[in-house]
Write a sequence for this structure.
C-alpha cells in the first residue's frame, strides 16, 4: 500500500514540472509578437492572428490610470502582466515621428486664430496675431506663424513662441495688392489653425505724362498746360514734381496738374509715397513755350453771355494768345446793331474781365466784342440780348373748393426768364418757362393768396396781385360728453371729455366756461388734450356750501359752443357732522348712536369724544356701536370730508345702569 502512494506522489510532481516548463517556453513568443506589432505600425494590411492567451486590450486601456506625476499605473486586475510586456506609454515612445503624431491626433487639439480681417498691412511690416488653443499641448511645444500665398506655398514668418500672441513680420518680397492667408502651426503635436485672410497694401508707383497721353505739348506764353499723373498702389498718394510742387494725400487717380512755365521745361516726378512708404516713378512731360508767337484774340463760350441783365455783373470769356507788347490792356465794347461800339469795362491786363451793362441800355439786341491796345486787335463779335427784369402778377381769382380739393392759381410773367415764384402760403415753383403759369394749391382753410417773392434771370423782380380761395367744410361742433362726476370740490381739478367735428381755423382756442353767482359764463384756465380738457373749478360764493353751476366748452374760430351741463360745486371746509341718540343699557352691553353728515363730500372721517375713530366711510347716515363703562355723552371731536375739514354738532347720551 505504501508503494502505491509513493508512485502517485512522484507522478503528480513530474506532471507539475512539465506544465511549468511549457508555460515558460510560451511567454517569450507573446513578447516578440507584441514588439513586432509595435515596431511596424505602418503595415496596416498585415493582421495579427487572434491570441486567446492575451488580455483584452480595451480592458487594459480603459483601466489605465495616470498619477499626478504623469506615470502610468496599472490596476490590480492586470497585475499578472509580465514585466517585460510593453505599456501603452512605452509603445508610443517607440513609435516613429509620423506615427506619434497620429497617436496625438486622437486627442482634441485646436488652434483658433482671432479675427484679423480688419488688418491691412504693408510688405516688410510687423503684425501681432492673437490666437487661442484647445487641448493639452506638450510643455516643449511652440507656435509659429506661416504665410500662404495663392499657390499654396507656406513660409514661416515668426519666431517660435510658447503662447499667444505671435509677432510676425510680413516678408518684404511679398507682392502688395494680393490676398494671403495666415496660419498658426504648433510643433508638439503638429496642429494647424484655420487659414485667416490678410490683404497686403501695394507700394505706390506714379507715371507722368501730358493730359492727352503724349509726352510733349506746345503752348503760348502765359497759357497753361495740363499734366496727368497715373497712380497705382494703395491710396491716398503724395508726390512731388521736379519743379518742387507737391501734392499731398490725393485720392484722385489720375491726378491732373496745371503748369504755366515761361520757357521750355521738362517735368518729372521726383518721389511718390503712400502708407507703405516710397515707390517708383516714371515718365516725363515736356512743355514747349513759343516765345515769339503772333498774338491772337478771340471770344470763347459766347453762349454763356447770350442773355444779359442791366446792372448785373458778368465775366467775358476770351482767349488772348501770343506775345503782346508792354503796356497792353483789354476792354469790352458793346454796340447796337447799327450803332458804334462803346467801351463798358475798365482796362484789364490779366485776361479776365468782369463788367456789367449800364442801366441806360434798354432791353434789346446788341453786339459785343473784346479789343487789345498793343497791338491793336479786335475779337470776333457775338450777339447778346439785354433782357428786362422780371415781373410777376397773380391773377385775381375767386375759387370755391370742397374739403380736400385742390385748385389752380394763374401767374403771368414778363422779363427775362426762366422765372420763380413764392406764394404767401409757402407754395414755391422755379425754373418756370411759360409766361402764363398755373400753380396748383390745396388750402385747408379759406385763404387769401399773395406773392411773397418772384423773379427771373436778372434776380428778384417786381410782383403784385392777390387771389382768394374759400373752402367748404362740415360745420364745426363741440360735443361735451357726460361728466365723470356731478359733484366736485371748489378749487379741485377735473378732466372733461369732449369731441369736435368740422374744421377750425388757425389760431382757434378752446376754453371751458362755468357760471358765476350772477349766472354769467366765465372762462376757466384750460389745458387742452385731444380727448379731454383739464380745468380747475372756481369757488362759489362764501355764504354757499353747495351751489349748482352750469358748464360748457366754446371755441374762438369759428365761435361754437357745446351743450350745457350742470355740476354741483361744494365749498371747502364746510362739512357738518351731527350726532344724535339716547339710550339706556346695562353694564357691559352695547348700543348704537347715529351720525349724519352734510355740506361736504364723501368719504367721511371722524373721531368721537371717547377716542373712537372711523376713517373713510361713504355711509350717510352712519350708525356706530358703543359700549361705555359708565354713562357717557358722545360728541364729534374732529371731522374731515372729501372737501376738507368740518365741524361737529349735537350729542348722544348713553346711560349705563349698574
Amino acid at each position: 500500500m505504501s508503494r502505491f502512494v509513493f508512485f502517485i506522489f512522484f507522478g503528480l510532481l513530474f506532471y507539475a514540472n512539465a506544465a511549468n516548463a511549457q508555460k515558460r517556453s510560451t511567454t517569450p513568443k507573446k513578447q516578440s509578437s507584441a514588439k513586432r506589432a509595435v515596431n511596424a505600425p505602418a503595415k496596416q494590411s498585415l493582421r495579427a492572428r487572434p491570441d486567446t492567451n492575451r488580455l483584452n486590450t480595451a480592458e487594459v486601456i480603459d483601466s489605465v490610470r495616470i498619477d499626478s506625476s504623469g506615470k502610468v499605473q496599472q490596476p490590480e486586475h492586470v497585475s499578472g502582466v509580465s514585466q517585460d510586456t510593453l505599456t501603452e506609454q512605452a509603445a508610443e515612445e517607440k513609435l516613429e515621428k509620423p506615427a506619434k503624431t497620429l497617436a496625438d491626433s486622437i486627442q482634441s487639439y485646436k488652434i483658433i486664430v482671432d479675427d484679423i480681417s480688419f488688418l491691412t498691412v504693408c510688405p516688410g511690416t510687423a503684425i501681432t496675431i492673437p490666437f487661442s488653443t484647445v487641448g493639452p499641448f506638450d510643455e516643449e511645444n511652440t507656435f509659429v506663424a506661416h504665410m500662404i500665398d495663392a499657390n499654396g506655398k507656406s513660409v514661416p514668418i515668426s519666431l517660435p513662441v510658447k503662447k499667444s500672441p505671435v509677432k510676425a513680420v510680413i516678408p518684404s518680397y511679398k507682392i502688395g495688392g494680393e490676398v494671403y492667408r495666415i496660419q498658426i502651426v504648433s510643433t508638439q503635436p503638429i496642429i494647424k489653425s484655420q487659414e485667416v485672410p490678410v490683404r497686403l497694401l501695394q507700394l505706390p508707383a506714379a507715371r507722368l505724362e501730358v493730359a492727352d497721353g503724349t509726352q510733349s505739348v506746345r503752348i503760348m506764353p502765359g497759357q497753361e498746360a495740363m499734366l496727368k499723373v497715373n497712380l497705382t498702389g494703395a491710396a491716398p498718394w503724395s508726390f512731388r514734381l521736379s519743379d518742387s510742387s507737391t501734392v499731398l494725400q490725393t485720392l484722385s487717380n489720375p491726378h491732373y496738374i496745371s503748369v504755366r512755365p515761361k520757357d521750355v521745361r521738362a517735368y518729372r516726378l521726383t518721389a511718390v509715397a503712400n502708407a507703405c512708404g516710397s515707390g517708383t516713378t516714371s515718365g516725363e512731360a515736356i512743355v514747349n513755350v513759343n516765345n515769339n508767337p503772333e498774338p491772337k484774340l478771340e471770344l470763347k463760350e459766347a453762349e454763356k453771355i447770350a442773355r444779359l441783365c442791366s446792372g448785373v455783373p458778368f465775366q467775358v470769356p476770351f482767349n488772348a494768345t501770343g506775345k503782346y507788347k508792354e503796356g497792353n490792356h483789354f476792354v469790352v465794347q458793346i454796340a447796337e446793331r447799327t450803332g458804334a461800339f462803346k467801351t463798358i469795362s475798365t482796362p484789364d491786363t490779366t485776361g479776365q474781365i468782369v463788367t456789367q451793362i449800364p442801366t441806360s441800355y434798354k432791353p434789346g439786341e446788341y453786339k459785343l466784342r473784346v479789343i487789345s491796345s498793343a497791338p491793336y486787335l479786335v475779337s470776333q463779335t457775338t450777339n447778346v440780348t439785354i433782357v428786362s427784369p422780371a415781373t410777376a402778377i397773380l391773377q385775381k381769382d375767386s375759387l370755391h373748393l370742397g374739403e380736400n380739393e385742390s385748385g389752380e392759381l394763374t401767374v403771368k410773367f414778363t422779363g427775362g426768364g426762366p422765372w420763380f415764384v413764392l406764394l404767401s402760403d409757402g407754395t414755391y415753383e422755379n425754373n418756370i418757362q411759360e409766361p402764363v403759369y398755373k400753380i396748383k394749391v390745396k388750402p385747408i382753410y379759406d385763404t387769401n393768396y399773395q406773392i411773397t417773392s418772384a423773379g427771373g434771370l436778372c434776380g428778384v423782380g417786381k410782383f403784385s396781385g392777390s387771389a382768394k380761395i374759400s373752402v367748404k367744410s362740415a360745420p364745426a361742433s363741440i360735443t361735451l360728453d357726460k361728466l365723470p362726476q356731478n359733484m366736485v370740490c371748489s378749487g379741485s381739478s377735473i378732466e372733461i371729455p369732449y369731441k369736435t367735428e368740422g374744421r377750425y381755423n388757425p389760431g382757434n382756442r378752446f376754453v371751458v366756461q362755468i357760471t358765476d353767482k350772477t349766472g354769467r359764463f366765465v372762462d376757466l384756465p384750460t389745458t387742452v388734450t385731444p380727448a379731454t380738457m383739464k380745468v380747475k373749478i372756481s369757488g362759489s360764493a362764501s355764504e354757499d356750501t353747495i351751489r349748482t353751476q352750469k358748464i360748457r366748452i366754446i371755441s374762438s374760430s369759428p365761435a361754437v359752443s357745446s351743450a350745457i351741463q350742470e355740476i354741483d360745486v361744494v365749498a371747502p371746509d364746510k362739512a357738518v357732522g351731527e350726532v344724535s341718540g339716547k339710550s339706556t343699557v346695562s353694564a357691559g352691553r352695547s348700543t348704537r348712536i347715529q351720525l349724519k353728515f352734510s355740506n361736504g363730500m364723501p368719504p367721511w372721517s371722524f373721531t368721537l369724544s371717547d377716542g373712537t375713530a372711523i376713517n373713510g366711510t361713504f355711509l350717510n347716515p352712519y350708525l356706530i356701536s358703543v359700549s361705555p363703562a359708565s354713562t357717557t355723552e358722545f360728541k364729534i371731536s374732529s371731522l374731515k370730508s372729501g372737501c376738507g375739514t368740518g365741524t361737529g354738532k349735537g350729542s348722544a347720551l348713553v346711560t349705563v345702569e349698574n
